[in-house]
Design brief:
Length: 460
């Protein structure tokens, strides 16, 4: 469904933009606020995982919350600098990470299976074992081991809509963005599943692996030796870094999109685009500042609860997106040659909604989810307060979906950076009054906001 929308409305902000234009700006704002909360927490989750699960084991650093926090802060700062410098850097690192991940996952999966077969160290019985939860009575019950284990798989299949959030910077977004969305899900599902099966079969000692600070690294070391373990950790570090940077860039673009429409706090500041880098520097710095604040002022256990709460938000957003599609599907226009589900769209939408309902139940039903659910309710309440203030003092921004101001397109910056189909072309077309030019007029929405890059094919 996300790909279906992206093939029709290629605008930065994804679900925020789709809901604003197809329902109304008030509904769109709700999508935007939830997505902002999710991405703001998500970048911290990715970078903290990088520090504790990959970087520290890679260099033999003893597990320590303070050390992990310092590393996370350093990673956040580096990502912000790179995201501000150029979207091309974000695209290059992300594309490289995808290639490295796929090659390494496939290679290691084959190696693990071969070694396990040759040495006999490992067992297919691990696939059906309950592990350390073998004698837990409520393993199949509500909030039991099986239900909680499914959450790990669910966490793999989120974030694919990052490509839609960067649509204004993609070449041929009506085709490339849906391709990136679908490709990322397929690759994660197939390659990830094969790798997980190989890892599970290769476990020698389930209890020891369960107690390890880095279970995957422990399995690699046991089966393939320390050299392969270090290689894996290098690749994982790189992948986490790329994922965190894309999350930061995506969050910054969402902030920019909402500010551009006058629907974000201090919007005159956060709608600014740097004339030198053609990137939204204030919006990027806001995501950085939010990440730094979370790491400095929220202790370890509370941070884990916050990150857990963030896993619920994308399910709500995706569910809302599917419901939105079902409501407006009959009046959506298709782009020539763009991705389309055709007659299967209704079937896919219904199946997606059922799957999301089950997913949401799995996430919120366990007793351990009460605190994360309360955090999410608090984030929604905070958004409702600001929404009320907007209705009181800036109601016009929520009443009508206005086109972007051409002055915001940053034509001059794009002219210098992009000699091909850039904002120069867009600005020239808009300024022309001839009938021929009006026929081929390119809208602000199509041209983007000043930092379209032709080599950006989309992200995971």
């Amino acid at each position: 469904m996300v790909a279906q929308f992206a093939a029709r409305i290629a605008l930065t902000g994804s679900s925020y933009q789709w809901a604003s234009r197809l329902a109304n700006p008030k509904v769109g704002w709700g999508f935007g606020w939830l997505t902002f909360c999710w991405l703001g927490i998500g970048v911290v989750a990715a970078d903290n995982a990088l520090a504790s699960q990959a970087f520290m084991p890679l260099f033999g650093i003893h597990a320590d919350e303070g050390t992990a926090s310092l590393i996370t802060l350093g990673v956040l700062a580096i990502q912000a600098v790179l995201a501000i410098a150029s979207v091309r850097i974000v695209a290059l690192l992300n594309s490289s990470a995808v290639v490295v991940e796929l090659a390494l996952i496939v290679g290691l999966a084959i190696a693990l299976i071969v070694v396990a077969l040759i040495t006999g160290h490992g067992s297919t019985d691990n696939l059906t074992s309950r592990g350390v939860a073998e004698h837990v009575p409520d393993y199949f019950g509500l909030g039991g081991g099986l239900m909680l284990a499914t959450i790990m798989g669910l966490c793999t299949l989120v974030g694919f809509d990052a490509a839609a959030n960067l649509a204004e910077e993609a070449k041929d977004p009506f085709r490339s963005v849906p391709r990136a969305i679908i490709g990322s899900v397929v690759a994660a599902a197939i390659a990830g599943m094969v790798f997980l099966i190989a890892l599970t079969v290769s476990i020698k000692d389930i209890k020891r692996v369960t107690l390890s600070d880095s279970a995957v690294a422990q399995i690699m070391r046991d089966q393939l030796g320390p050299v392969v373990e270090k290689t894996l950790l290098v690749a994982v570090t790189f992948s986490f870094f790329a994922a965190g940077m894309v999350t930061m860039a995506t969050g910054a673009r969402l902030v920019y999109a909402m500010a551009r429409d006058g629907r974000f706090p201090f919007h005159p500041t956060f709608r600014r685009i740097s004339p030198s880098t053609s990137t939204p520097i204030p919006a990027t710095l806001l995501i950085l500042a939010g990440g730094v604040a979370l790491m400095l002022f929220i202790p370890g256990d509370a941070l884990i609860q916050l990150i857990t709460a963030a896993t619920i938000l994308p399910v709500i957003i995706y569910g809302g997106t599917v419901i939105l599609y079902l409501a407006v599907r009959k009046r959506l226009e298709s782009q020539d040659g763009a991705f389309s589900l055709g007659r299967w769209d209704l079937t896919v939408a219904i199946l997606a909604l059922v799957w999301l309902a089950i997913t949401l139940f799995v996430l919120v039903a366990p007793h351990a989810a009460r605190v994360p659910v309360m955090i999410d309710l608090g984030l929604i309440a905070a958004g409702a307060i600001f929404f009320g203030l907007m209705l009181a003092f800036n109601r016009e921004s929520l009443e009508v979906e206005l086109p972007a101001d051409p002055a915001e397109v940053a034509v001059a910056a794009a002219e210098a950076a992009l000699p091909s189909r850039s904002a120069r072309e867009c600005g020239a077309v808009r300024s022309s009054g001839s009938a021929e030019d009006r026929d081929r007029e390119t809208s602000v929405d199509e041209c983007g906001f000043g930092f379209v890059h032709e080599d950006f094919e989309g992200v995971r």
